[in-house]
Amino acid sequence: MVTSEQRRRQLAREKYERQQANRVEARSKAKRRNAIIAGAVAVVVVAGASLAASGVFSSDGKKKAATASAAPVGKGCTTPQPGSPNNKQWSTEPSMTVDAKATYTATLDTSCGTVTFTMDASKAPHTVNSFVFLAGQNYFDHTKCHRLTTQGIYVLQCGDPTATGSGSPGYKFTDENLTGATYPAGTVAMANSGPNTNGSQFFLVYKDTQLPASYTPFGKITGGMDVLNNIAQAGENDANGQGDGAPNATVVFNKVTAVKD
């Protein structure tokens, strides 16, 4: 017969085991969440690593820029237009030229279809100003989207001329619009490698995603969600089994423009 003391100890042991299991699961979820957009040396967050981030965003000039010559893969994808990223560099953030009270529309003419999104300069003036500047410099043209995540976090990361996760325009700028930030489907946000390390890398959210409010949201997709879903359905070159890798679809920006509405 089990005594009350033995029963108490059994219940305590079971409670402890449940707590341990919950901690392990929580750590696992946290690692998956942080990895997505964090990687200075990791995959996402870092511009140097990948998405979670824009990353280290320091280009040492030794990485070979990706070309747009790969054969098309994925529904609706075609051969990218010929050309290579110009990989221009600047030592400082561009001066403010956007109208801080206006909205702007970005058009991503990709090898897999067109994606458009609006940007509100009143909420993220530095971010919108940088994006408009880089688009005007043809910085994004012929660059390849280098990261797709399909488990836990659902984003396509782009904006790196090296397609390695470490490319940047040479400057960094401050975070914005983080208070209460969420990342539902249709969000466009900056990738980074830590606070105030924004550069050129950004990600497009194709399905509601839970992330810490650490990545500046600056755009809302208005067209082309079907394009993103087709890219996601083609999957990623996942070497670690975690739903995180280069997209199987060949996603190259033929041309990126940003104009005032």
TrEMBL record:
InterPro entries: Cyclophilin-like_dom_sf, Cyclophilin-type_PPIase_dom, Cyclophilin_A-like. Gene3D superfamilies: Cyclophilin-like. The keyword Manganese does not apply. It comes from the Bacteria. Residues 78-94 have a biased composition (Polar residues). Keywords: Isomerase, Membrane, Rotamase, Transmembrane, Transmembrane helix. Its EC number is 5.2.1.8. GO terms for molecular function: peptidyl-prolyl cis-trans isomerase activity. Residues 113-258 form the PPIase cyclophilin-type domain. SUPFAM superfamilies: Cyclophilin-like. The chain crosses the membrane at residues 35-57. Residues 1-28, 70-94 are annotated as: Disordered. The keyword RNA-binding does not apply. It catalyses: [protein]-peptidylproline (omega=180) = [protein]-peptidylproline (omega=0). It holds the Pfam family Pro_isomerase. Belongs to the cyclophilin-type PPIase family. PPIases accelerate the folding of proteins. It catalyzes the cis-trans isomerization of proline imidic peptide bonds in oligopeptides. This is Peptidyl-prolyl cis-trans isomerase. It comes from Kitasatospora viridis.
